[in-house]
Amino acid sequence: MRHGNKVNHLGRKSDHRKAMLSNMANSLIEHKRINTTVAKAKALRGFVEPLITKSKNDSTHSRRTVFSYLKNKEAVSALFRDIAPKVATRNGGYTRIIRTGFRLGDNAEMCMIELVDFNELLLAASAPKKTTRRSRKAAPKADATESAVEETTTETTETPGAPEASTEETSSEE
Known about the structure:
The protein has helices spanning 14-31, 38-55, 60-70, 73-86, 120-126, 138-158, 161-173; strands at residues 33-37, 95-102, 109-115.
């Protein structure tokens, strides 16, 4: 029975499982998204999110702690340099799992796991679009009224305003 065993062993011994999760975390940090099975993605999320939380505090101790899990200098430096500043205001939930279907060979459920703040397509779609609140029917009326207002102002300034302005100018000059 598996009562109280919360770790998914993924069909591997502990050393193999730790090495696999470390390699997957390195790939996730380097590429910002990877394709894998749902079970491995859920295990990876539990492995990498505490490391990202620890990377928010950039100290020698936290770097050494993260390095003991990842065992890759480039991944540790990328985590502290690129990822930590972007997720500094986020209180967890640094990864997203998107299910992509089933694998052809063995019908395993596949997914894509990615870092949340690094999906440019989703960030661009969530940016507010600059739109007006007018409907298409209201736009021609606005143009018609604007042109009518322009005509009345040009008529009033040209006919009576032009001679008066010239007489006022001449009287002020004299």
